[in-house]
Structure formats: C-alpha cells, structure tokens
Write a structure and sequence with these properties.
alpha+beta, Creatine Amidinohydrolase, 2 domains, three-stranded antiparallel β-sheet, 15 strands
Amino acid sequence: MKKAGICGSGLTYRALQDVKKVTQAELVDVWKGIEAARMVKDPTEVENLREACRIGSEAGKLIPSFLSDGMSETEAAAELNYRMQRLGASGPSFATNASFGPNAAEPHHSPGSERLRKGDFALFDFGALFNRYGSDITRTFFYHRVTRRQKEMYEVVKEAQQAGFDAIRAGAISKDVDAAARAVIDGSSFKGLFIHSLGHGIGLSVHDGGRLASGSDLVLEENMVLTVEPGVYVRGEGGVRIEDDIRVTKDGYELLTFTPKDLTVI
C-alpha cells in the first residue's frame, strides 16, 4: 500500500491539500501538456519500446508450450511472467491477464481459479517492461477444439485489426482509424460487441496518452506508439481480442510486435 504523497499516477488528493497549506503559489494542472509531450517518442524511447515489444512477442510465442488441462488462470499468468523475465524483461508492464472460457468475454478480467478445459477460449493480455518502457499484446487461442462460430469471431477480429492498420499514417484522425476497424465488426454477425476503443498510446505507462477512439480528434503524428486491439465479447460464451503495438510513420505504420496471430488450436 502506498502512503499519501506523489505516486505513479500523480498527486493524491490528500497530498494536494497538504501542499495548499504550506504555499501561496497558484497550482496549475499541466497534465495535458505533459501528455502531449509524451505521445511522440524520441529515438531512444522508440528503441526501448522495440525491445519491450520484442521480449513480449518472443514470450507470446511460448504460450502454447505451457498450457495444459486443468491449469488455472493464475498459473498461466505466472508462467508467462516468468518467461518474459527470462527473456530480459524487468517484469510485466502491467498485471498479466489470462482469461479462460467465458471469462474471455470480460475485457479487463483478473486471473483467478478458473481452470482450462477443452473447447475454451484462452485469452492472454500481457506486456514486457524494459528500461521502464512497456509493451502491450493480446493473443487468443482455442484449447483442443474450435467451433465454427469461434472461427468466425476470430477471423472478424483479425480482419478488423488489419482495417485499423490500413487507416494509420501521420495526419490520420484517431476516430477515423477506430471507425475503420469498428465497421468490420459491425458489418458482421457480431455487431455491437466491440465494446471499447481501438487503442491507446504506450510508453513509460501502459496508457501513455492518446487514444484511437470514436470520440477522439487526435491527429496522429510520426513516432507516436499505439496499440491496435479490436475485440468481440459475448457474455457467457467468451471473447476474442487481438492486440499489437505500432509506431506511426509518415505513410503508414511500423509493426513492433510479432507473436503469430493465425488462428491457433492448442
């Protein structure tokens, strides 16, 4: 538990009241300026992010090798964290998410005691921390067998991600990129089941300013680093999300993550 004071997310309310008691200075909220400055990465930041993405991607390739009947979500998350650190990460860039079966329908599920069974969705949301910069990847697998509906769900999400990629370039508007991906899902039998924004900035924080979202007028700039993560979520059944990290370039994007994303039955 953190004591009151300046924490990773900023100044706590209690600490703000303490500061006001000892100064007559005007306190100005500068978060928008700091956020804008952090969104465009310099060359050193890009290299740190590339390495964080490399480590996360290599670890993601290993997921099929350690899944087994009856493994719990917490065990699977621990195994993935271990592999990221063996590959050079200082730790996970956020709490690793392993979601099995119907739990994959919850975008922000926390791993628990749910155990892996045949026919389950197995969704992993994870990232590696390197020199304080983090990656953010999601891959969805199917355990032992996959249904026609699950295949359709997966292929729609994969197509939506590519549509988002194709809309990215310096000068593009965030909401237009989101719309390109969302149109694919809403044009399928899964209309309305993409329930979050398409992506967000990453860097020193896993949410480092800027979003690819329907309500965002953010103009993309070269060397912004963002996630692209469409998903479909069916309560009581499961869900699919595919997430990669990209760097915005003048004419498109550089894909920073490379864990395979062909439909995989383990």
